Automatic annotation (TrEMBL):
Belongs to the peroxiredoxin family. AhpC/Prx1 subfamily. Homodimer; disulfide-linked, upon oxidation. 5 homodimers assemble to form a ring-like decamer. Its EC number is 1.11.1.26. It catalyses: a hydroperoxide + NADH + H(+) = an alcohol + NAD(+) + H2O. The lineage of its organism: Bacteria, Pseudomonadati, Pseudomonadota, Gammaproteobacteria, Alteromonadales. Thiol-specific peroxidase that catalyzes the reduction of hydrogen peroxide and organic hydroperoxides to water and alcohols, respectively. Plays a role in cell protection against oxidative stress by detoxifying peroxides. This is Alkyl hydroperoxide reductase C. Residues 4-159 form the Thioredoxin domain.
Amino acid sequence: MTQSIINSTIKPFKATAYHNGEFVPVTEQDLLGKWSVVFFYPADFTFVCPTELGDMADHYAKLQSMGVEVYSVSTDTHFTHKAWHDTSDTIKKINFPMLADPTGVISRNFGVMIEEEGLALRGTFVINPEGQVKVAEIHDLGIGRSASELVRKIQAAQYVATHDGEVCPAKWQPGDETLAPSLDLVGKI
């Protein structure tokens, strides 16, 4: 058994990202001070990956309005990210940084590296402004994710972070009632 990544602080990393037509450096320091999503996927030029990244691109404006930055990560190089961006209509929609992790350091830091294949599992991590992981979701390679469900989870994480003593029940949406855990609630829900 391994220790949960929830509430752990992100580990140091250095990467080159393809972002807005340029190669830019990104470190763990860039994730601090705002909410962030680190979105791992196995490889560029594949099948499920572009559907997920396209879905994330479609939700990016909403995430930005919530104060969230998205960082997609694969073990491909930043050159491969650029080539994929230049050749795929789906990937051309991406406006968030696409981090290159060819050495697997970032993938290992988050526990999603498939050592035998040199690829990352489909991992999604929501990180608060202090650099702590608040949501972790890991899928097998054949199972795609939903950006709309991720938006809901981030909304819940942000709500809980700013409303001490309250928690969000299943399927909670902004504006819904929350719970204030207490002895009085035990056995009554």
